[in-house]
Amino acid sequence: MNDALPAPTYVTSLEEVLWGGLLVAVTMVMHGLGMLSVLRANTRLKWRFEKSPSFWKGIGVLILASWMILLVHLIEVVVWAGFFYWKSAFPNPSTSYYFALNQYTTVGSSLNLPLHWRLLEGMIAAAGLLTFAWSTGVLLVLAQEFQDQQMEAFKRRRKVPSSE
């Protein structure tokens, strides 16, 4: 005789959908503000260095932008982790953050949310994909500006004066 209990049935609830939608919206708002901050900081640094641009200053600005973007992502994960801890999905903030970061980056982990919050595992991954795509676009713009500046400097150095 088989005494094993049947696996509990998962049913998506309106509460879960609404919380997930709110968390994705908060993530996107935070990301928008963060990306605008990155672009503003980049613009200020470009103005500061425009009289004496160099390869190293340009790379330094790109590294700073990368760090700022990473910080924005890490702060966004705090919101998700805070929600998971608040709803008692995990025993402590550290485990909540670990889980949220792994889901946000789509790495995944051996941890799972309680059954009634399972939809959020996919929603946090979707939020991460959306924000990483946005970050990639911002970093691509900044990298393209840096490359254009470097190529212009290269052309100026290689220009042969005319013999008139």
Defining key terms:
elongated; mainly alpha
How would you portray this structure in words?
The protein has 164 residues and is mainly alpha-helical. The chain has one domain: Helix Hairpins (Orthogonal Bundle), CATH 1.10.287. The chain has 4 helices and no strands. The chain has helices spanning 14-49, 55-86, 93-104, 119-158. α2 (55-86) packs antiparallel against α4. The chain is elongated, with a radius of gyration of 23 Å. The model has no long low-confidence stretch (mean pLDDT 92).
What's the SSE blueprint?
Elements: H1 14-49, H2 55-86, H3 93-104, H4 119-158
Helix pairs in contact: 1-2, 1-4, 2-3, 2-4
| Distance, first to last CA | 102 Å
Global shape: elongated
The tally of beta strands, per DSSP, is 0
Tell me which CATH architecture applies here: Orthogonal Bundle
Order of helices and strands: HHHH
Low-confidence stretches: none
Helix content: over 70%
Alpha-carbon Rg, integer: 23 Å
Structural class: mainly alpha
Share of β-strand residues? under 5%
Short description:
The chain has 164 residues and is an all-alpha fold. It has four helices and no strands.
